[in-house]
Amino acid sequence: GESVGLHLPTLSVQEGDNSIINCAYSNSASDYFIWYKQESGKGPQFIIDIRSNMDKRQGQRVTVLLNKTVKHLSLQIAATQPGDSAVYFCAERPGGYNKLIFGAGTRLAVHP
Amino acid sequence: DSGVTQTPKHLITATGQRVTLRCSPRSGDLSVYWYQQSLDQGLQFLIQYYNGEERAKGNILERFSAQQFPDLHSELNLSSLELGDSALYFCASSQGTGDPKNIQYFGAGTRLSVL
User: Fold this and answer.
1) B91 in Cβ contact with A87 (< 8 Å)
2) CB contact under 8 A, A43 and B45
3) Which residues on neighbouring strands pair with residue A33, listed in sequence order?
4) How close does chain B come to A58, measured CA to CA in Å?
5) Per-residue pLDDT of chain B (115 residues; tens, 9 = 90+)
6) Are B103 and A46 an interchain contact pair (Cβ–Cβ within 8 Å)?
7) Per-residue buried b or exposed e for B62-72, using 16+ beta carbons within 10 Å of the residue's own CB
């Protein structure tokens, strides 16, 4: 499949460990944040989202934390599995606009 | 499967040519978004249409244009192609517009190679 972002930062974890992927966003007026997962040869896939009036949201095996003070977003994946191997993007929605601004992405590599 | 359909999957063309990329949104979605993904620029928003009308514009070149038809499918037209236009082009769709809870669901993309 195609390689996206050959020079992306890579997080390597052991299967079963917890993963934490970090993202710094740029616009203090952003009101909504999303994490997407992109597997090789596929489009970005929605994982979880959070509004700016929250600081934590949990999904199935995933948790997103938002720290507006330092404009930081993180995605925690519990009990990481080989199927979690992909590139993960955070995206922010600048307040009042419909577009999403994507971060550079982080490649997650899960080793058995 | 996100429900967003993009055609073609791959497109190889020469500099100076013109191509059209097609997107069918998920059933019931009124908004269509176009993004460009290149190795050096990451995912960049190009343009959004909502129910046939342009709603937001991003880093879209003047050589590029888009439209959304009455059946809600959208086309992205790229003309006078340059080597640097080689990239993955994604279409996303959402139910509406404005409310941030309108999650954008992405298609599998069209890979454009300009030789």
Assistant:
1) no
2) no
3) A50, A92
4) 16
5) 899 999 999 999 999 999 999 999 999 999 999 999 987 778 999 999 999 999 999 989 999 999 999 999 999 999 999 999 999 999 999 987 767 667 899 999 999 999 9
6) yes
7) eebebebeeeb
